[in-house]
């Protein structure tokens, strides 16, 4: 089989790329290790930057997002029991974010790809990538025990942090930058009305908490927990009790509890692999970088990479290699700004058990400065809503 671009991974990065290339007449195949149900069952991101919203519109999959998504004009920081609103619209000249779950976004993309009759192989096993340092890369996989080989012009490694593409790059050709945090996020999804109109990021001596949502009827909550915690040790009641301890009386009074429909613990990590291009193979999304979810950047960075990559590949087929030659540098400049913001938000809002007392006090002073300074609130707001592209 031959295609122009073989996309590994049917998460947001792979599916958005597939849609954008399809609209430009570039033929693709998507190879996904899991079933569609498994991919949709992973509860992940909830916040879309305007650039991601625009890209989904460009990909032709924005209708349900605009119908069901919730535009948000700010967030609240709850620090020492005091709320500080970060007014996105006022601080960024009108920018805002869209609350729309990654699960729904992925469902929309899956349906659009199927409706267009584009080839996607789910449960593709033993995927391997070959000769990406030549002009004739190939991808191999098995499906139902039958081996297949795909000849292509390019391989898009959209296969996430544990994927095969980055792992196939020789060690001496890639540099990894990483920070692992000494805690995780215990997340709970419930069909209950959200505790507030906007997201609440709470810093508490017992640990960080986040009150988010997916709609007016479905809420998403997170608690910072030690890495030693096991999700099976957290009953719903224990979760709700701990969340109440970290919120103010206004939120506690408004909290509607109910049975969890999903509960999981995610580790927190900052990670970047450089470069993101290896001959005819490009990494995009979590395959190349990971951020702690504190800044709500993971999915948005995947969209950002794919915006650059789709344009570069279309340019190549139009006769210019400028885009593919600049892909890695352009992505990394934006990625590192989002990595810095996510690392900064994580340091400011979490309780670090082993941080020395001076550093802890300095972080508290920094947060106090940020929420009481126009410059500090503006910096937070313009990074949270998403920095402009410097195309
Ligand atoms: P993904 O990991 O979503 O997709 C990669 C796909 O490749 C997967 O479907 C995988 O099955 C497939 N794959 C892997 N190896 C393969 C192989 N060898 N062959 C074929 N297919 C293969 N971001 C936020 O903004 N907010 C959040 O709250 C948030 N929470 C998260 C919680 C968790 C537990 C995780 C892991 C991530 C979270 N993220 C969050 C980040 C997340 O949203 C990612 O940024 C987003 O999924 C990135 O999309 P992709 O790059 O497409 O990677
Ligand atoms: C979510 O709703 O899942 C969410 C929102 C904001 C974050 C992280 C996760 O910073």
UniProtKB/TrEMBL annotation:
GO terms for biological process: benzoate catabolic process. Its EC number is 1.14.13.2. GO terms for molecular function: 4-hydroxybenzoate 3-monooxygenase activity; FAD binding. InterPro entries: FAD-bd (IPR002938), FAD/NAD-bd_sf (IPR036188), HB_mOase (IPR012733), RIFMO-like (IPR050641). It comes from the Bacteria. Keywords: FAD, Flavoprotein, Oxidoreductase. Residues 2-342 form the FAD-binding domain. PANTHER family: P-HYDROXYBENZOATE HYDROXYLASE, TRK SYSTEM POTASSIUM UPTAKE PROTEIN. This is p-hydroxybenzoate hydroxylase. It comes from Georgfuchsia toluolica.
